[in-house]
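Sequence only, no structure available. Ideas?
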Amino acid sequence: MNNDIQLIIDAIKRQEHHNAENLCWAALKRRPKSSQLHKWLGISLVQQKKYEGSVEAFLKSLPEMKNDFDVINNLAFAYRHLEDYENAIPYLDKADLLQPGHYSVAFNRASIYFNLKKYDMALEETLKCYKFLKNAPVGVATNPKNLRNLYVEILFANNSFDQAIAIMMEDLEGNQEEFDA
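Reply:
I predicted one. Tokens follow.
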């Protein structure tokens, strides 16, 4: 069993998500109730943007992995992409209890609030993301460009045009060599 899991993890690390999914399905034929295999299946599916399947897989892993941050956070992420915010938010709350102040929890929450047109709450969550980035440990996966784009969208939606335009101009000036090529 451990060898199966390691092969799956290695495939995911190589960005071979379809291969990881196939390895999961093969291993699940031998162990259909394995929470670990369902977790890794969910991760491989979410990486392929197969959100409905990932939700199913993560839910099957929950009985034994109800305090696994990766399962809980990725389940919230999948629900967010399915625009099922009613289910996403409680899982974000649980993920925040497991790892308080984590970047991906705040980013997912900001994205949900933005889509719900709760711009002040979205803005508050993006500021938490910026604070996290400022103090982020080396090797923590974040995407500052996506955060900045979301922040600018929130500013526009909140009628903070001058501030949004200033950030966009700053980005243009910082990337001038890309436009000159």
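The two ends are 52 Å apart (CA to CA).
Hope that gets you unstuck.
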